Amino acid sequence: MRGKRKRYYHKTIILKDVFSNTLIYTIAVVFAVGIVVSVLGKLNIQPSRAFIMAEFDKIFCAGQELPFEKRNVYDRISAVIPSVKSSEEMTKKYSAKYSGVKKEDNAAEKQDKQEEISFSEGKKIKSIDMSSDGITFRNETAYTPDVQSLLNTKLNFKMEEGKPNVLIMHTHTSEAYAESPDARSTDNNKNVARVGTVIEERLKSQGINVIHDVTRNDYPAYNGSYTKALAGITSNLEKNPTIEVVLDVHRDYAEQTKNGEAIQLKPVATVEDKQVAQVMFVIGTDGLGLKHPDWKHNLAFAVQIQAELNKVSPKIARPVNIRRERFNQHMTKGSMIIEVGTAGNTIQECENAGYYIGNAIAEVLKRY
Predict the structure, then answer these.
(1) Are the C-beta atoms of residues 283 and 323 closer than 8 Å to each other?
(2) Are 150 and 300 in contact (CB under 8 A)?
(3) Quick one: the chain helix, strand, coil %, rounded to 5?
């Protein structure tokens, strides 16, 4: 009889963890707003819309970088109701270790075949194969995407020559790898910014103009990093309206608990005699009610990139993760998160992955 099913921890936001706390808060907010509106009506007071929005901003959006008046109604609601903004809150809560719980069924089968455990900075690390069998999805939404349809989708890119087409940035810039304490570093040669640089170099080598923004969106404060990143994306798009692709490069976290002891997992493959960190594309949707009309285009883009990676090796990419959260991906029709390795991978393994990611993205974009 097989032992207890192993569980793997990674950056998945579990809304039910905060629902009980946010429900009461949400009801209280709605009730309070109703009372204020009623009192003002009885007093025949009609404050201007600008005054209301300014006060609303002071109460609920203090410290957020993006001007409140520039947000749509969905963004305003998400700033008020914790169950809608839970992605940011839960990211903060679990930032030191993990951001939720998810069982990786395929990984549970594959990991038993690899028991070699290494050590780095006092941490136990095990190599694991989390690769996708072809192009598959780890779908956390109610949508049912079709791989073939996405592969056949003609992407809506113009790719103007001589102007910036791609923005590489990092919501969690200090995410680093096994060599760094706690897998965090402000050294851009050791964190995900270095992986972004490798992707940048590969794209530029093939004639694609790139801006790489290494702003530390998660330092010194992890909380608010997605809001800060959104302000940075907005600024870059305003200065460079020809940007059509926004690549938010991260690293993941995966952990196995065995006999009460935590073992970090590093998804890795051997490609052309090199150790390469496995990668995962994360695509946000409108599943939480936030406006995001082009998420299917983003998904088609990610699927076509993964198809190019599979031509090099079917072991490089993990299943595409489709999420309910939006993750700032509503800003362009070519936005995505790319999780390059985990906290257990080495920076060299992730640089190797960046090389293949850059080539694959270039192959897709050169069609346009």
Answers:
(1) yes
(2) yes
(3) 40, 20, 40
